[in-house]
């Protein structure tokens, strides 16, 4: 297929050349009007040097050629495995009658053209001399010259003679016709007193004469110029060197990532350990006190577990602040059945004197600013502008408690930056290596290591030993929230204790059963309910609406705080 395509390109070049060589007597009368341009003789002497360089001397005898004469040489041969053998033409001289002629040399694809201008009509004789580098290839039993001096000439050639000046030869071959022809030349022989001789009579326009001369090992050095075609397969070569190197980089990268996680990212505690703990303890006068261990707050619990601040941690904190008496959540009346629900958050003037955590104070300031109340629908920009300060305070708080040696968000950010940088380097390396070499797989391996860093970086925040006991207590609290028989709580404290446990259940799971427990405190289901001290419903509201009300509240709070 390649040879046929090359043949088509040569024919096209031949037609272009032919258009520049008009018949000598196109506008005259008589018998000369029928004379066509032709190469009457082509004689060539090819000397093969020991280093493989060809020194070529040619004589072209032209008849009825006028204007520009162009001849072609195939200088690029496509071989399997994306390999090209290239021949370089050098030291070109063209003379006519002993005078130098002006030439124009161009290489287009697989063919080099040599155009000689100012050819006079009638009979002309051109002497070409040039060198060819890269024509000698290594073969199984020695070396071989592969040369096609006549290629795609746009004139018929009546007689072509080529004689080689070489040392001992092992074989010769010659083919004439189309570029991929296997028709033997008129003559191809090894002379007893001279070098290999080749002859071809009556070569039609556009045809080719190509020949091969073989040499035993050690006679003529191979000087093939090898170039590789740029293909996807070659750019990402799976040859042994490239494949082994890429796999080695991947293996070493995987080992480094594993070691990195073991040394820097692995928690220094056993998260499965359960330490006896409860949210409830027996107080004076047989009353039940709500006493979370280590004075844990819902936002801190969520941050400790997954090492990041989620929307649920902030919404649970707001509900917890309301339950503890620092603000009141008031559901607004619905103008229509399908109107969007809204809530007023109202600051409590005589709030309990307990000491708030820093992140809780920052959150309250972010919600209210200088006002005493705000609608959830209007929180938006004000809270989001200060949300980063809330997250900073919460992260600083878990570090201050000794649960982490450094802030988890900064640890993740550091390793994400390193992972992104490595991935970008890998992508750039992949592109450059694929364009300039066969080592594209190495770039992919580096990219995969960068992606691995991005993944491992998410788990790099490591819990300190001080977090071990707290995590064990959290595990016990989660079991209590999910399995405790809520009906065992004192009736007169039922609503209070269930309300206090609810924010923890929002973070740890089981919130539905604690909301249901609050709904169960409704002793008059047919009558309108006001709600609780921390959550008040609108006119006509019933406790049975509490699950939907809190679900909608959580959704709207999350949207107001975290929507972009």
TrEMBL record:
- The chain positions of domain Predicted membrane protein YciQ-like C-terminal read 290-518
What range does the record give for the signal peptide?
1-25
Question: Which residue ranges traverse the bilayer?
Answer: 243-263, 414-435, 441-460
Q: Does the keyword 4Fe-4S apply?
A: no
Q: Does the keyword Membrane apply?
A: yes
* InterPro entries in the record: DUF2207, YciQ-like_C
Q: Which residues form the DUF2207 domain?
A: 39-215
Taxonomic superkingdom: Bacteria
Protein name per its UniProtKB record: Putative membrane protein DUF2207
Q: Which organism is it from?
A: Kribbella kalugense
């Amino acid at each position: 297929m390649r040879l046929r395509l090359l043949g088509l390109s040569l024919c096209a070049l031949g037609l272009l050349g032919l258009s520049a060589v008009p018949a000598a007597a196109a506008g005259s009368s008589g018998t000369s009007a029928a004379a066509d341009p032709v190469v009457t003789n082509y004689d060539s002497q090819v000397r093969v040097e020991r280093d493989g360089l060809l020194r070529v001397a040619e004589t072209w005898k032209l008849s009825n050629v006028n204007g520009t004469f162009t001849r072609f040489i195939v200088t690029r041969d496509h071989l399997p495995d994306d390999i090209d053998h290239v021949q370089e033409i050098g030291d070109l001289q063209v003379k006519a009658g002993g005078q130098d002629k002006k030439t124009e040399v161009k290489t287009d694809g697989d063919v080099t053209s040599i155009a000689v201008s100012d050819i006079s009509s009638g009979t002309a004789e051109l002497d070409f001399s040039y060198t060819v580098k890269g024509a000698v290839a290594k073969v199984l039993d020695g070396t071989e010259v592969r040369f096609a001096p006549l290629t795609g000439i746009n004139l018929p050639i009546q007689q072509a003679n080529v004689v080689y000046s070489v040392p001992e030869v092992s074989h010769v071959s010659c083919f004439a016709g189309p570029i991929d022809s296997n028709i033997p030349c008129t003559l191809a022989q090894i002379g007893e007193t001279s070098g290999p001789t080749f002859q071809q009579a009556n070569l039609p326009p556009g045809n080719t004469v190509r020949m091969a001369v073989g040499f035993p090992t050690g006679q003529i050095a191979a000087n093939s110029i090898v170039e590789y075609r740029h293909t996807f397969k070659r750019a990402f070569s799976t040859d042994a060197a490239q494949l082994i190197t890429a796999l080695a980089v991947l293996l070493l990268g995987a080992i480094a990532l594993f070691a990195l996680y073991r040394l820097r990212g692995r928690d220094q505690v056993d998260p499965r350990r359960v330490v006896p703990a409860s949210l409830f303890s027996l107080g004076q006068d047989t009353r039940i006190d709500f006493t979370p261990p280590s004075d844990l707050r819902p936002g801190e619990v969520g941050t400790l577990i997954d090492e990041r601040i989620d929307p649920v941690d902030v919404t649970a904190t707001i509900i917890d602040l309301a339950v503890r008496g620092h603000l009141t959540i008031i559901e607004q009346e619905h103008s229509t059945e399908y109107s969007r629900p809204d809530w007023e958050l109202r600051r409590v003037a005589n709030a309990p004197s307990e000491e708030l955590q820093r992140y809780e104070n920052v959150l309250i300031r972010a919600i209210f600013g200088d006002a005493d109340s705000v609608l959830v629908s209007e929180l938006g920009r004000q809270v989001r502008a200060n949300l980063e300060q809330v997250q900073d305070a919460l992260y600083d708080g878990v570090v201050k408690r000794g649960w982490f040696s450094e802030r988890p968000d900064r640890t993740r950010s550091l390793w994400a930056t390193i992972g992104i940088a490595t991935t970008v380097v890998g992508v750039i390396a992949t592109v450059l290596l694929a364009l300039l070499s066969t080592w594209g797989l190495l770039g992919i391996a580096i990219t995969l290591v960068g992606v691995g860093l991005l993944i491992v970086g998410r788990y790099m925040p490591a819990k300190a030993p001080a977090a071990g006991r707290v995590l064990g207590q959290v595990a016990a609290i989660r079991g209590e929230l999910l399995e405790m028989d809520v009906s065992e709580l004192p009736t007169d404290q039922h609503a209070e204790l269930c309300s206090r446990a609810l924010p923890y259940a929002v973070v740890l799971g089981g919130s539905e059963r604690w909301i249901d427990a609050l709904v169960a405190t409704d002793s008059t289901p047919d009558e309108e309910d006001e709600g609780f001290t921390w959550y008040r419903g609108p006119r006509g509201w019933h406790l049975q609406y509490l699950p939907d009300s809190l679900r909608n509240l959580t959704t709207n709070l999350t949207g107001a705080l975290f929507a972009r």
